[in-house]
Design goal:
5 helices, 28 strands, mainly beta
Length: 461
């Protein structure tokens, strides 16, 4: 074992309830895999990987609608270097998403398949000395399902004549390593992208063989090098560490649905969620990547009317206005801003001389940036449009502003200047009137105060 031409065959003989109206038959699905030879240390998953090319063939049940598939024959493999054949019975535990695995090639998708040894705790393995365990991790590309299946070997351990020469495993009558699938954990949403403020449902399903008890369900979040517990469940008791986090009702959980629900997503909820299922004997997990997106709003404003001043302080020349497109409250950081200019009756023309402010980040983690542009409206004026594209938007957001020609800006400035002088005059007259009124009130008050304090014989004087 370990040569380049070595192959692995895993026969997944899927069984299910017979359909009374259809004749079911087994159809093989063949996947390219890697077998991982690892260090045999105790207590979990090993390391020091040494990958060897392998072949994973699984049988799915067909109701007769599938055409063009032929059975996979072990005899078709190279006889000089025969594969190790894992014959896995799935009667205790069904393997989910078999159809997605079967149709992966037809859907132009790839299946990543990795098989490795699984080691029990020393105290557990001591009770089952004759068995060995393997775990297969399958992932369909393009956001397809992810499945982890755990298999236990079977066979006649007393008949040492039927042992695999390199793996030291008992073989069946046909020279295959007989195994049974005892545990599987799966998710059909390995990656999600959701809007900030929305709710998330992170799928995690599992099934266990009879005789195994569900001991614990744990959800953890890993993000930017730190980890935290999100939800923990043991029979009869659940504890949420993230406000509002819930699991499915306990009856659904016991039936194999450990999905996590998160309301009102914030940027702090982004990261890799680990769904870990622990039984009385085994432990397996799935990882779901959650991406949180958001774009709160875009504002376009003219911040400079653009007038120079003469030595007398009056405007004598109109300068081009400066337009600013503010993009606030978006996440993640990548955003695309484009400008166009359109004269009356003309077609939009891209503008490439816009500049950008420094990137700003709010305490909540969202980003803001501004793009500024000096408008050149020409003699007839022009419409400037700012377009913003972001991953959180179904389509770009567009907003526009009108840049008036110089003559209109001068007239507008004259009206504004005259209005300002008028308002200043009103304020000045009002102030003068208020001061005069205040002075008269003060004089009358002073006379009254003096008249009150003088003796009667002095008042006539």
């Amino acid at each position: 074992m370990g040569t380049e031409g070595w192959c692995l065959l895993l026969c997944l003989a899927l069984s299910g309830a017979a359909d009374t109206e259809r004749q079911w038959r087994a159809v093989d699905v063949v996947l390219d895999c890697f077998l991982v030879e690892e260090g045999k240390h105790r207590g979990g998953f090993a390391s020091d990987k040494n990958m060897v090319k392998a072949l994973l063939a699984g049988a799915v049940l067909d109701d007769g609608s599938l055409e063009g598939f032929t059975d996979f024959q072990v005899s078709t493999l190279v006889k000089d270097n025969p594969p190790v054949t894992f014959d896995a019975s799935v009667s205790p535990v069904q393997i989910p998403h078999a159809e997605a695995l079967l149709h992966a090639d037809c859907s132009e998708k790839e299946v990543t398949c990795e098989i490795s040894r699984y080691f029990l705790q020393a105290r557990q393995e001591a009770a089952i000395e004759t068995a060995a365990w393997f775990i297969a991790n399958l992932q369909v590309s393009g956001g397809g399902p992810s499945v982890s299946i755990l298999m236990k070997t079977l066979g006649d351990a007393e008949n040492r004549a039927l042992m695999h020469p390199t793996m030291n495993l008992p073989l069946g009558p046909q020279g295959t390593v007989l195994t049974t699938v005892e545990f599987q954990v799966t998710t059909h949403t390995p990656s999600l992208s959701l809007q900030r403020g929305s709710s998330a449902s992170l799928h995690c399903g599992f099934s266990v063989a009879p005789g195994l008890d569900l001991a614990r369900v744990e959800w953890r979040l890993q993000h930017k090098g730190s980890g935290q517990l999100v939800y923990s469940w043991t029979p009869g008791q659940g504890q949420a560490k993230r406000e509002g986090a819930t699991l499915e009702p306990e009856q659904l959980l016991m039936a194999g649905d450990a999905s996590l629900k998160l309301p009102s997503l914030t940027l702090k909820d982004e990261g890799a969620y680990i769904c870990q299922i622990t039984t009385s004997l085994y432990q397996a997990q799935q990882i779901i990547q959650l991406h949180v997106q958001g774009a709160d709003g875009i504002r376009l404003s003219s911040v400079n009317l653009g007038f120079s001043q003469s030595t007398t302080g009056l405007a004598n020349e109109a300068l081009p206005p400066t337009l600013i497109c503010n993009i606030a409250g978006y996440y993640p950081v990548d955003v695309t801003v484009t400008w166009t200019r359109e004269e009356l009756g003309g077609a939009p023309v891209p503008v490439s001389d816009a500049s950008f402010s420094s990137l700003r980040q709010s305490p909540e983690g969202t980003y803001s940036i501004s793009s500024s542009l000096t408008a050149e409206p020409g003699s007839a004026g022009a419409t400037y449009t700012c377009q913003v594209a972001h991953i959180s938007l179904d389509e770009p957001i567009v907003t526009s502003a009108w840049a008036a020609p110089p003559e209109q800006r001068i007239v507008a400035f004259g009206v504004l200047f005259a209005s300002s002088l008028f308002l200043l005059a009103l304020l000045y007259l009002g102030l003068q009137r208020w001061q005069a009124t205040s002075s008269k009130v003060c004089q009358d008050s002073e006379a009254l105060w003096v008249d009150t304090l003088l003796p009667p014989n002095k008042k006539k004087e």
